[in-house]
Design goal:
181 residues; mainly alpha; disordered N terminus; flat
Length: 181
């Protein structure tokens, strides 16, 4: 069975459950599921804009590297690392730009909650790919600049930093908020 917006009852139940969880944690906004989805969509767009910019700048930089004179002198490992980095950068850019086309396809179909969920997944995937592209770019840059195995250690530190800032910190904060709620 579906409601007036064409959503199955289990989706309405999930939206009601999420709203109840928000109220239980002191986040009551007195919004219906559509208003909540609209708010989440606007918030997510702001997040996407920040991540898209970073991915696009990195990807643009990566594309230009192959046209430098020094690129031809790179060893096979560094050239392969470059290719992997460019591909990961392209995948990150695709995942972070995808919400635009998804929104265009679903606009007007009253499916905003689904759009928010799908965009959240795309954004999470894009951020993970962006982190991987940045770590690979740091490794490549430092291998070429330093010609030393220190590049691996620095890239590992950057990876751990991203994991802490983008994964561990939010999870710790979420658990703390859930305990306080």
């Amino acid at each position: 069975m579906a409601d007036d917006y064409g959503r199955p009852e289990d989706e309405r139940a999930a939206a009601a459950e999420a709203a109840a969880a928000d109220r239980a944690h002191g986040f009551a906004r007195h919004e219906n599921p559509e208003e909540r989805a609209d708010r989440q969509w606007v918030e997510m767009l702001q997040e996407v804009r920040v991540a898209q910019t970073g991915a696009q700048i990195l990807f643009g930089f990566l594309l230009s590297v192959a046209f430098t004179p020094r690129f031809a002198r790179l060893g096979w490992f560094d050239k392969d690392l470059y290719v992997v980095t460019v591909v990961i950068g392209a995948l990150a850019t695709g995942a972070l730009v995808a919400p635009v086309s998804v929104h265009r396809m679903l606009a007007g179909h009253r499916r905003k909650p689904e759009l928010v969920r799908m965009t959240g997944r795309l954004l999470g995937t894009g951020i993970a790919l962006l982190a991987a592209a940045i770590v690979c770019a740091v490794l490549l840059l430092l291998r070429v600049a330093l010609q030393s195995d220190y590049a691996w250690a620095v890239a590992a530190v950057v990876l751990v930093w991203f994991a802490c800032c983008w994964l561990v910190l939010p999870l710790v904060l979420k658990r703390r908020l859930e305990r306080e709620g």
